Amino acid sequence: MARIVGMDVLDVRFPTSRELDGSDAMNPDPDYSAAYVVLRTDDGPDGYGLAFTIGRGNEVQAAGIHALEHLVVGRSIPDTAAELAALSAALVGDSQLRWLGPEKGVAHMAIGAVVNAAWDLAARRAGRPLWSFLAEMSPEEIVGLVDFRYLTDALTETEALDILRAAEPGRAERAAHLRAAGYRAYSTSAGWLGYSDEKLVRLAKQAVADGFDMIKLKVGASIEDDVRRMRLAREAVGDEIRIAVDANQRWDVGPAVEWMRALAPYDPYWIEEPTSPDDVLGHRAVADAVRPIRVATGEHVANRVIFKQLLQAGAIDVLQLDAARVGGVNENVAILLLAAKFGVPVCPHAGGVGLCELVRHLSMFDYVAVSGTDEDRAIEWVDHLHEHFTDPAVVRGGRYLAPTEPGFSARIRDESLARYAFPDGPEWRNGLL
To answer: How far is the C-alpha of 133 from the C-alpha of 408, rounded, in Å?
Structure first.
């Protein structure tokens, strides 16, 4: 029987703070980083996963992944839905590690990295890209992936099966459409808070020329600066292009409402993370005050339970799941089913190293097998660091191309691992930061 015989964990950091790529009001100097995990096997391909951080603390995240090694090494390789569900349950259910959450923070993100690596391994062994591997499972297999504990007051197994069975008839046609036409993207690359006005305008115009029908700006440091930047962006792209704004949790409820009323003349499409990701009622208060501007959140939402409450409260209009924040593919399947139950579109967060590579699989699975629609949906696109991956995300004409390589697209190139390893890789030894 083929087994997992080893687990490597690497601290990999990219010095993005040098050009202020990724900068926002709450995170002014991020170094996009990956606590990177490799599941070594004794039979065939290995599996790859990561937890995304923004620099300092990546060693803490790597240590969290290391703490799971005794639960993984020596297991038979999980190839089926039932085996992948069992692995997820074993990791989440370790009582001593669960105490550190439960099901949130560094410990839960570590589980997500390992679970995603196991899915990458299973999809590689099946010779299928993850989105297709997952979408070809039966409704019963998909429901079996989900831990319904804490969810049944909002979503039962029977309701989940009904959602999946309703989407079955058009699966093949939607998969063919993805392969031919891809999936809509929106661009954040123009809107980092540290960019000059001139750079913002130039990149906004370039995004439209490249086929994007939506861009996003970071806001929250200065209301006067944000009004000016929003005006410049609107003048640059015209009235037909949607402009979303993202405060990265900068505000209390009152300032969020005040800020959005000041930006309202420039027709913001949504306000993302207006307040604490844990504040369900705060999001509801902002949403009630600023609609028809939509409220979006999710990249820092810790688990399926908070997503459940946001949906139950009518606190969000757009759900932004993250491939590396919660407990991996299994929990994200639960979140997609919750979104489908409540009729809320999913527009995943992808601002970070490897996240574009991963989340495209989840959105495409949702389109094929869960919601059955791409209406009002788009995947975030951030145009840097893709060259470090063996199966990089590609966007053409404002649309993500469907991945065709087997796996979950998480593998980083060996030369990049060597160059950006922290603290001993040459990019760090040479004193760039």
So the answer is: 10
